[in-house]
Amino acid sequence: MDKQQKLRLDKYLADMQIGTRSQIKDMVRKGRVMVDGVVVKSSDIKVLPGVDDIVVDGQQVGYVGKEYYMLNKPQGVVSATEDSSCKTVLDCITDKQRKDLFPVGRLDKDTEGLLLITNDGELAHELLSPKKHVEKCYYARINGSINSAMVDELEKGVDLGDFVSLPAKVEVLSSSDAESEVRIVIVEGKFHQVKRMFESVGRTVIFLKRLSMGSLLLDESLLPGEYRKLTEAEIMTLKNR
Ligand code: URA
User: Fold this and answer.
1) Is 108 among the residues known to form the active site?
2) Do 114 and 225 share a domain, yes or no?
3) N or C: lower Cβ tally within 10 Å for the chain?
């Protein structure tokens, strides 16, 4: 439970998805809401999350301010908060408490791996701001071989038409005429960036998985589609980067 500044009772309860503001007003009017053991008469009183005891219909309602989840995004799921036809990354977080969560950046529908899902706008801004050059590491399987000239080009930066990529780090894990495996670290997050970088050296990405973002590493015990809360240490390290 987060300790924070005072909040209006209706916002507190709406944040915890107890109802809409007007439903909450109605609950209060009907005497269903107690604060510190006293039935309240108005939904616009201020309460202190983590300190005041809020009870609705006899059930205590704790407050969660910020939530942080690490999702191993599976293929076939879109990095959006809602979508009319496709499952979204938010649909994967089945026990979320806040309704204002969003993914920090986007992975393509066919990309797997690390996606941070939170409602911490400040942290998201820090991680996504182009000026901050936050490193993102990907594992990629590529059709065909990768030679050192290609690695040099990718590492120097390639012209993708609308922009030239900033220097990347590339580690070739294996390479054969049929297929190669690489780890690539980039500091930008442009649309289809990794795929476009490999296309510019004549190769196609056939599988892509994000392994890390800044200090946050994908927990390899998470299968695609699984998620967990970030630890306090992971949150602190991300914030103090
Ligand atoms: N680069 C891509 O091409 N796709 C992603 O999903 C992420 C980075």
Assistant:
1) yes
2) yes
3) N
Q: How far is CA 235 from the centre of its chain?
A: 12
What pLDDT does residue 3 have? 52
Ligand 1 centroid vs 193 CA: distance in angstroms?
A: 5
DSSP-based three-state secondary structure for 56: strand
Across the chain, mean pLDDT equals 95
Residue 89: CATH number of its domain: 3.30.70.580
Q: Is 162 exposed, middle or buried, given 0-12, 13-18 or 19+ CB atoms closer than 10 A?
A: exposed
**Closest ligand 1 atom, residue 205 Cα:** 3
Chain segment 211-223, per-residue pLDDT in tens: 999 999 999 999 9
Quick one: 123 and 222 in the same domain? yes
What is this structure's pTM?
0.89
Q: 195: CA distance to ligand 1 center in Å?
A: 6
Residue 200: both structure tokens together:
């510019």
Q: Which atom of ligand 1 is nearest to the CA of 136?
A: 8
Is 195 a pocket residue for ligand 1 (Cβ < 6 Å)?
yes
Atom number, ligand 1, closest to the C-alpha of residue 107 = 6
Q: How many structural domains is the chain composed of?
A: 3
Phi, psi of 192 (to 5 degrees): 55, 30
Look at residue 2 and tell me if it is in a domain: no
Tens of pLDDT, residues 139-173: 999 999 999 999 999 999 999 999 999 999 999 99
